[in-house]
Specification:
Four copies of one chain form a homotetramer. The first copy, chain A, contains ten helices and no strands. Chain A is an all-alpha fold and 218 residues long. The N terminus of chain A is likely disordered.
DNA sequence: GATGAATGAGCTTTCATTCAT
DNA sequence: TATGAATGAAAGCTCATTCAT
């Protein structure tokens, strides 16, 4: 007697889940190479080698190079989909602390093993993969800016914010946070005068705080 | 009586000899495609087509695709090599005006016809062309930051600067300016809530001014 | 009852995996075309077709056309590296018999399946591949002349040699043997009055014997 | 009223004559490169450069690369067409002297400025240009062997010839003479133990004389 | 006639993908 | 499932040839 084999992971999901059975090592390997070399310049054979498999095996799990790319983005973006919750878990700190926490958590999350370099990759390939870019813009960038906006609102409620356009300030803050990530994967290692990550993060937080919060020393 | 048939650039001018203009036309075409698609994803045939020539003609002027890429970067970077002089021509304005001018001129220069998209391109290809990246870092990024630093010094001398680490502040300001350019060539067109360039530039200037200068409303 | 349809190499075996035999098959095909057309005039696609593979397959085994050429030479030369042993296995025959044997064995060895046409090929391409030519000169030509010299010494010891400069005679004998091979791959088939290989070999042996050995009829 | 323009140099001539107006410098340059590199490996642009002209100019005089090649052969072969008269001008010398003269004149003629390397070139390209090869075989090789045959006849008449097959001996003598030329353009410069041209020519003459003529020391 | 920039067909080579094992 | 040799379309590049100057 045959039981109908139910496929729980129906492929109708826009962002398919393959979960356990998918060799996430392939995705990790692919992400590393895509980030450093770009999509077109990365060879499938090199991904396979880095993942410790043969080229043919890769095609057992991914339909083609492009769908692997999408899986890389999709998978790496997952932790960011509800990052608001991840990054800032309570709004009871002082606004200043909140901003410092924001910057640090932002870095920790986006440079974590699973999504390191994804913003750089999406910036580079934005024209080649417009759907992914639109998805990222809608699901990650926009929520991120909303969260920043909420932090500013929180400061506003505490009467600690300076006179400013909160919408535009959110955007600029986002630019700073985003560029911190890009810089780490592009020019950082060619800097004539390198600066530690910690120093950069602190400087970014200081810069933002000075710009948006009321502080003694103006 | 036969009128001489005048060929209005229909196909008779395929054999135009334009030794002088060709290289820069090819470079312009190549820059556009390299910026939007990346080096590896851009086909030589497409560059040729966009430049209005045949593929073989491209090789009359450039040894290969890579040297064309280098020519694109080097040529496009030229206006930036002494951009300090280009961007800020006098330090007699108020510091606030100076920063507003900086942001606007930065944009005008870097999004001008000759170098539009180059920062995006170099960010994307930094790992694939380390020498070019080092060159850009040394000759463009570093001087740019120095110029920003001098603006802060100017404000310091006028006693209009807030208490801050000028070196690190310069770096963050540079990040903002740089990211403005990248954003324009990546996510801008996929924004769910687009914002005009003018608004972004003003917001960036405001943000920077609030962060580094003494202002009434803190 | 259905007989299993046997596919007699019609097209079902396009995907044959024959890692072991492939390289030497490619080399054989390449040798044939290189010998008749020269290196530059031979197309990689034609070599592949003659070897019964696709162009891409060739590059699984050889880095490029030039390294295939080198492999052809190196592989084809192998049987010649110790040909002295191969050609003349004993020095107990009469000098005259020895020379007849030399000529015949020389022909049999150098026109065997594995090295047919190589002297012609190396003559043609000597300027384009100087290292290979030097290698061939040192490892094949020089030892060949030494062996000829030893045959003359053997005749000398038997007091059957005429008064002559043995060093120079060896060179001339080598020229004759070498040219026999070249002629077979160049003008032979365009001869207005063709002569059989056998006749040529005998004539060459006769000519050499008369020149270097004491014979009754002078 | 138009007179029909009469082309005095009708192209019906199998081996066209362009005489004075043809830049024989082009042919000289082409011969040098064809001999050392082969037909396919020689670039028209390099021939033009060596001839001191521009690529386009070459096509004023030659229809295409192949017809230039034919002109090279055709022109270079001219001195050989009646070389019997050129090489041996009298049959009054002793047969031995005649053979020595033959070898020396053969060399002087075939390595003269106008035809140096042609035998090597034709050997290399024999399969690619069968008509030229047939022509060369018929008009040069065959007459050359006939002349050698006549020398042997002359020796026969003087009762100075050994017992031999004169037809086959002529062929072997020709092989030797031909190979002397080939060797000079292929392996000679890679010889581990070089020998002067003069020594080789003498050795060849000695070798031939010993083989075909009655001599005291047998 | 001479030029040399421009051509474009055709070559070598690459590499994402397939499939017999 | 995993393999990796084989594929073949497509890319970069060459160079004999053309033709406006």
């Amino acid at each position: 007697m045959e039981e109908k084999q139910v496929n729980l992971n129906s492929e109708g999901n826009r962002w398919q889940r393959r979960k356990e059975q998918r060799p996430s090592e392939i995705i990790q390997a692919a992400r590393v190479l895509f980030v450093s070399q770009g999509f077109a310049a990365t060879k499938v054979a090199d991904i396979a080698k880095l993942a410790g498999i043969q080229p043919g095996t890769l095609y057992v799990y991914f339909e083609n190079k492009e769908s692997l790319f999408k899986a890389v983005i999709e998978e790496s973006i997952k932790p960011l989909l509800h990052y608001a919750d991840n990054i800032i878990d309570n709004f009871t700190d002082s606004p200043q602390e909140l901003i410092r926490t924001l910057v640090q958590r932002w870095w920790d999350l986006l440079e974590s093993d699973t999504c390191r370099g994804i913003p750089k990759l999406l910036t580079s390939e934005s024209q080649n993969f417009p759907e992914l870019t639109a998805f990222y813009t809608r699901e990650c960038i926009d929520p991120a800016r909303n969260m920043i906006y909420r932090i500013l609102e929180y400061a506003l409620n505490k009467n600690e914010i300076r006179l400013l356009n909160m919408e535009m300030a959110s955007r600029i803050i986002f630019l700073i946070l985003h560029q911190l990530l890009l810089h780490a994967h592009s020019f950082a290692e060619h800097e004539p005068h390198p600066v530690s990550t910690k120093a950069m993060l602190n400087a970014a937080a200081d810069f933002i705080i000075r710009s948006v919060l009321k502080t003694e020393a103006n």
